[in-house]
Amino acid sequence: MAQLINRQSRGVYIIAATPFTDQGAVDHESLRRLVDFYISHGVSGLTILGMMGEANKMTGEERRAVIDTVLARSGDLPVVVGVSDPGMANLAELSRYSMDKGASGVMVTPAAGPAREDRIEAYFHDVCAAIGTDVPVCLQDFPLATGLPISSALIRRLSQACDQIVMLKHEDWPGLAKISRLRGDETAAGTKRLSILTGNGGLYLPQELQRGADGAMTGFAYPEALVQTVALHEAGRREEAEDLFDRYLPILRHEQQPGFGLGVRKYILMRRGAIASAATRAPGPKMSPTDMAEADRLMARLARALQGDLPRL
Fold first, then answer.
1. Angle formed by the axes of helices 261-271 and 238-255, to 10°?
2. Mean per-residue pLDDT, 269-298
């Protein structure tokens, strides 16, 4: 059985895409192949049904089927399930279903509404009460997508007051100072440590690691880049970590285009043999022939860049 996420969790919890057929159905065979692909590249865990997993476009039955497929394939690898939902009862039900099936925790984003911290604070207290005290929570802080900024002070209050909130998915941008503040808080007696994994495609991963992040929770189509960067950093080889990471930056940057980037990510995953189709579920981005040729060129350039000597553990 996989270990539950906790305040010491580290490494790369890759955000998994959800493969669809060209007709728009969930492709469970590709999903199993994708899990194998991620595992083969050494990830520490998986996160499914996040924003880039297109969970908001799925029915409840489809979400449960995705959970079933991934957990049946992932073995003892920790799996975090995105359970955010406008309805608290739906969120609690999916959380319980996930944990009963063997998930290692759930990820929750603030509910839509006024950008007031008292409302967000009350919401997470309600979530923790609704899902039960045995369910570890990863709080997703992604104000660029949600429009709901969460201060480091509020994150700390929630982490202190709610034992279940053990992990932060940090996606504030700019946000390096927030990581520094959160880690600085932990020098005070009685302050609980918080696992911090970062998103935004990994754009700022080397700097985030240097500020005190424990790893990444994002979905770059080259998971080995994230895994090796984190491993080199952990080994104290920070310059080598940045040198390696820099080789991937052009294609990583291309994949981070708002809205369109998911199409790029899925296309690259398809070209790498991880999924059968690059289809996104409507409404979603579609790659034109020019877009595909552009991505192919970036992949070829990366392959040439990787032919040189690379720092390895």
1. 110
2. 96
Tokens encoding 129: 């009460």
Reply yes or no: is the peptide bond before residue 206 cis, omega within 30 of 0: no
Closest-CA residue to 30 (of 40, 41, 19, 16): 19
Contact 55, 47 (CB under 8 A): no
What the block records as the tokens of 152 is 């480091």
Q: Which two tokens stand for residue 15?
A: 């955000």
Which residue reads 């009685």 in tokens? 190
45 bridge partner residues: 13
Domain that holds residue 103: 11-245
- Residue-wise pLDDT for 83-133, tens only, equals 999 999 999 999 999 999 999 999 999 999 999 999 999 999 999 999 999
How many domains does the chain divide into? Answer: 1
* CATH, residue 223: 3.20.20.70
Is 167 annotated to bind ligand? no
In a domain, 119, yes or no: yes
251 part of a folded domain: no
| Phi, then psi, of 81 in degrees rounded to 5 | -110, 125
Query: Strand, helix or coil at 68?
Result: helix
Assess contact for 95 and 106: CB atoms under 8 A.
Answer: yes
Tens digits of per-residue pLDDT, 184-211? Answer: 999 999 999 999 999 999 999 999 999 9
Structural domain contains residue 162: yes
Report which residue type is found at 217: M
Q: Count Cα atoms within 13 angstroms, Cβ side, for 199.
A: 22
